Amino acid sequence: MKIIVIKFGGTSVGNLNRIKKVANIIISYIKRKYKVIVISSAMSGVTNELLLKIEKIAKEFPDAEKDVILSTGEQVASALIAGKLNELGYISRSWLSWQIPILTEGKYNSSRITNIYKNKILSYLKKGGTPIIAGFQGVNSDNRLTTLERGGSDASAIMCAKFFKAKECIIYTDVEGVFTTDPRLIKSAKKIKKISYEEMLEMASLGSKVMQPASIQDARLNRIDVKVKSSFKKKSGTLITKKKKIFNNNVIRGISFTKNDAKFTLVGIKDRPGVAAAIFKPLYENSVNVDMVVQNISGIGRETDLTFTIKIDDLYKTEKLVKKNKSIKFKKLIIDKNVSKVSIIGVGMITTPGVTYKMFQALAQKKINIEVISTSEIKISVLVNKKNLKKSVETLHKEFKLDSL
Ligand code: ADP
Ligand code: ASP
Ligand code: MG
Q: Theoretical Cys-Cys bridge with 338: which of 127, 235, 267, 386, CB 3.0 to 4.6 Å?
């Protein structure tokens, strides 16, 4: 069987007209003798609306119940697609995770797929049916519904490609592929033809929401080639694949950014060995993810300042935890919500000296102040004031010659 997995994102199924277009894309594969497995996201905005309802009805809402609600968006979209295909004369039905089943492990709201039972879907394909699988959801060992992290239909598609040994896995979205940076912010962004799992994972984790980070981990682990394409325009997309298959001279492949960070500065902390651990322990215990950290040098026993960033969603929780932390003493707490993290990414960085200097110099020339820095082998991130976000990305996009690819 020539199986192909195709996934449609929120905007691609965003209204009834779009769903008709999606049905035509699916039919074009059926006509080319593919056995098509379709994964659908919820219609755009639906998951956010459901989250709002949850937040409004109760402050402490059980995570398991949250997932029952959040998974409904995909149920609606997959049935709409199946219904349209039926009308057009094709055998099709929706499949919810528990009907297959798609098994998951881990916490509610951020589960990971561990197994997909094949028999029912394979026999349905053999009968000529086109299954429309609700993405983003699974079922756990307690027989309860779970959801993957936000954007998780990407992971549903990649794991289906793995378990059904698909020839191809195509992610249909609202842009033509993966670009050097978000094409909605920077008009000169260029489409990348091929990108390695490593670079894509870094870009996705650092804010390029075109692919869900966990899904790229799944693709890399299972060596699944992933194509990202537009469901709006018939154009070649981006292939996400092994490093070995890519020939590229550019040191920097892409620039990612976030808009949902917050910066905490603890001014005048009484410095002593273990003080940083004392600050971060309660944050860790309460699942607050600390991202960038910088601490001023001080003589032992003197005062120092410590700055760190977290996701804005964790702001109130973090503020409460820091203020009630009895094991630390500080003079002032400053919270800044107007920050953005801008990151340059590229495996070529490992062997190319001077990238850090070039980045800092380019930003300095535009009088953009860098507030915090963090680096890894294949990325450099800086924290800037949100008002400088676009200027920073534009400057770096030019500096690293991504404009002229
Ligand atoms: P879907 O609903 O199809 O899953 P998403 O909204 O999750 O789509 O992802 C697509 C969006 O990702 C695009 O509309 C684009 O604004 C954004 N994006 C951010 N960074 C990039 C990038 N480097 N390349 C392409 N798109 C990007
Ligand atoms: N509907 C889910 C979300 O908005 C999953 C997805 O779109 O991939 O996060
Ligand atoms: Mg998405």
A: 386
Tokens 């410590």 correspond to 306
Q: Which of 71, 76, 136 to mutate to test the pocket of ligand 2 (most atoms within 8 A of CB)?
A: 136
- pLDDT one-digit tens code per residue, 111-142: 999 999 999 999 999 999 999 999 999 999 99
Tally of domains within the chain = 1
Give the ligand with the smallest distance to the CA of 136.
Answer: 2
391 belongs to a structural domain: no
184/176 Cα distance (integer angstroms):
12
Within 169-260, where are the H helices? Answer: 197-205, 213-221
Angstrom distance (rounded) from CA 95 to CA 101? 9
Whole-angstrom distance, CA of residue 174 vs CA of residue 233? 9
Q: Which domain holds residue 168?
A: 3-174
Which CATH number fits the domain that encloses residue 105?
3.40.1160.10
Ligand nearest to the CA of 170: 1
Say if residues 18 and 51 touch (Cβ distance below 8 Å): no
